[in-house]
UniProtKB/TrEMBL annotation:
The keyword Methyltransferase does not apply. Its main location: cytoplasm. Transmembrane segments: none annotated. Belongs to the RNase PH family. Rrp42 subfamily. This is Exosome complex component Rrp42. Non-catalytic component of the exosome, which is a complex involved in RNA degradation. Contributes to the structuring of the Rrp41 active site. InterPro entries: ExoRNase_PH_dom1 (IPR001247), ExoRNase_PH_dom2 (IPR015847), ExoRNase_PH_dom2_sf (IPR036345), Exosome_comp_Rrp42_subfam (IPR050590), PNPase/RNase_PH_dom_sf (IPR027408), Ribosomal_Su5_D2-typ_SF (IPR020568), Rrp42_archaea (IPR020869). It is found in: Cytoplasm. Component of the archaeal exosome complex. Forms a hexameric ring-like arrangement composed of 3 Rrp41-Rrp42 heterodimers. The hexameric ring associates with a trimer of Rrp4 and/or Csl4 subunits. GO terms for molecular function: mRNA 3'-UTR AU-rich region binding. Keywords: Cytoplasm, Exosome. SUPFAM superfamilies: Ribonuclease PH domain 2-like (SSF55666), Ribosomal protein S5 domain 2-like (SSF54211).
Length: 263
């Protein structure tokens, strides 16, 4: 291992074992959050979110297609992610990397398992035509904790997405030219990511904290339902039962403050 990362690892770990973080935050403190909705004119829903120096832009693009055979009355939702090379030296152009696939899947799972989008209301004609939502995530700047930042961007984009009113007439879908409907979003999702370094469990890791983590856990908590809908474990080391319970407790405790930015 290179000598500089090893020195950094020991320095940050020593700080955390002493109850401190390199940037001065408390263990349960997030970085500053900034949300700007409607940033893409040609998307029906979009948002830009900054979490510290991490920045993600999300666009929602609907189209009309056929439902899946096993869910003829449900709309379709697909999430894609692109880690732009300008965001970080380690991101490269080409096929999706394992990191981009994991990010898209974590965000997508949270949306599905929380059932925050009413997919039944995206059905235009059962078994024939439904709305299909394509959610595209673009990482602009990477300074740690892409999961929480991307989820906030997706939530903001979904909340401001509007669809043309659609009718099924004579085996064709007719779209209104001047009447729209809000995307049927019936809940909100708070995603909270924690990392274990040394003896400490910290919320919203920065890039340098992510680079030396022992373990990571991301917890999705719904707003209205107030229940856990998703979890994702990362890192090579295990987490103790107390670590997981502490993370769950903090995810619920900080949920309202995190979701207040969407208002």
């Amino acid at each position: 291992m290179d000598i500089v990362p090893e020195i950094t690892r020991k320095s940050i770990t020593r700080l955390i074992n002493d109850g401190k973080r390199a940037d001065g935050r408390a263990f349960d403190e997030r970085r500053d959050i900034f949300i700007e909705p409607n940033v893409i004119d040609k998307a029906e829903g979009s948002a830009r979110v900054k979490l510290g120096d991490t920045q993600v832009i999300v666009g929602v693009k609907p189209t009309i297609g056929e439902p899946f055979a096993d869910t003829p009355n449900l709309g379709v939702l697909m999430t894609n992610c692109e880690l732009l090379p300008m965001a970080a030296p380690g991101f490269e152009p080409g096929p999706p990397s394992p990191e981009s696939i994991e990010l898209a899947r974590v965000v997508d799972r949270g949306i599905r398992e929380s059932e925050l989008v009413d997919l039944e209301k995206l059905c235009i004609e059962e078994g024939k035509k439904v709305w299909m939502l394509f959610i595209d995530l673009h990482v602009i700047d990477y300074d740690g904790n892409l999961f929480d930042c991307a989820n906030l961007a997706v939530m903001s984009a979904l909340l401001n997405t509007k669809l043309p009113v659609a009718e099924y007439i004579d085996d064709e879908v007719v779209l209104s030219e001047d009447e729209t409907m809000d995307l049927p979003v019936r809940d909100k999702l708070a995603l909270s990511t924690f990392v274990k370094i040394g003896n400490g469990l910290i919320l919203d890791p920065s890039l340098e904290e992510e680079e030396i983590l022992d373990a990571r856990i991301t917890i999705g908590v719904t707003d209205e339902g107030n229940h856990i809908c998703s979890m994702q474990k990362g890192g090579e080391e295990p987490l103790t039962r107390d670590d997981i319970l502490d993370a769950v407790h903090l995810a619920f405790e900080t949920k309202d403050d995190l979701l207040s930015y969407l208002d």
